Amino acid sequence: MKLKKKIKIAIDSPAAAGAGTQAKLISKHFNLLYLDTGKIYRLIANIKLTQANRYSHSLIKKKMLKLTMKDLQNKKLLSDEVGTMASIISKDKKIRKLVHAFQIKSAYHPPKKYNGSCLDGRDITYKIIPNADFKFFITANTKTRALRRYKELKDLNKKISFNEVLKSIKNRDKSDYNRKVSPLMRTRDSILINTTNLTKRSCFLKIKQIIDRKLKA
Ligand code: C5P
C-alpha cells in the first residue's frame, strides 16, 4: 500500500497499556517505520545494570551514535528490572538529549520504502513529533496493565508475582507522570484510546478507522 503523502504518528502511553502492540499493528498495516522509544531507554538501563562502573554520558553518547534498530531487539531489555531502571535513567536530561537524534531521524527521515513513521513513548506527542499527523494517548486501568505485563513476563519465563508487577507499574506511573523532565501527559490534540475493555483487534480497528477517515478527507 502506498499513501499519497508520508505520515507521522505519535503515541504516548503509560507502561503496559498496549501501545506497543497497537503501534506495531498500525505500522505494519500502513507500512510505517516503527520505533519503540522505550527500548532505547531500556538499552541504556541495561548498560547501567550490567556495566555500572563503565556507565557514563560519554559511553552512552558513543553507543547512541552506533545505535541500530537491531540493538533494540535484545530480549534482555524486556525484563521488569530493566524497565524500572529505564524509568530512573530517563529522568536524566543529558541522557534524553543523547537519545533525541535517533528518534528524530526515525520520525522525520525513515527509509524511502516506508510511508512514514510511528513512534511510541512518553514525550513523543509534544517533544519528539509535535507536528505529527496523528497523535494518540493510549491507556488502560492499572490492574489491566499489570495483568497484561504479568502475562508477558510469564511467557518469557521471568520469575515474578502479579503483586510485584502491579507495584512496579504503579511506581513507574508515579515517576513517569510526575518527573520534571519530559513527563508523561496527554496533550490536548491527542486522541484518547482506552484499551481496558477492548480486544487487540477492536482497538486496532478503532485506531485504523481514525487514520483512514483523516487520510480520505
Ligand atoms: O515503554 P517502556 O515501558 O519500555 O519504557 C521504559 C521506561 O522508559 C518508561 O517507564 C519511561 O520512564 C522511559 N521512557 C521515557 N520516554 C520515552 C519512552 C520511555 O522516559 N519516550
Automatic annotation (TrEMBL):
A single cellular component GO annotation: cytoplasm
GO MF term list: ATP binding; dCMP kinase activity
Sequence ranges assigned to domain Cytidylate kinase in this UniProt record: 9-210
Keywords tagged on the record: ATP-binding, Cytoplasm, Kinase, Nucleotide-binding, Transferase
Major enzyme class: transferase
InterPro entries, A to Z: Cytidylate_kin, Cytidylate_kinase_dom, P-loop_NTPase
Localization terms from the record: Cytoplasm
Keyword Transferase belongs to the record: yes
EC number: 2.7.4.25
Any one GO BP annotation for this protein: pyrimidine nucleotide metabolic process
Domain of life according to the entry: Bacteria
Catalytic activity field: dCMP + ATP = dCDP + ADP; CMP + ATP = CDP + ADP
HAMAP family given in the database record: Cytidyl_kinase_type1 (MF_00238)
Stated family: Belongs to the cytidylate kinase family. Type 1 subfamily.
Protein name: Cytidylate kinase
Organism field: Candidatus Pelagibacter giovannonii
Gene: cmk
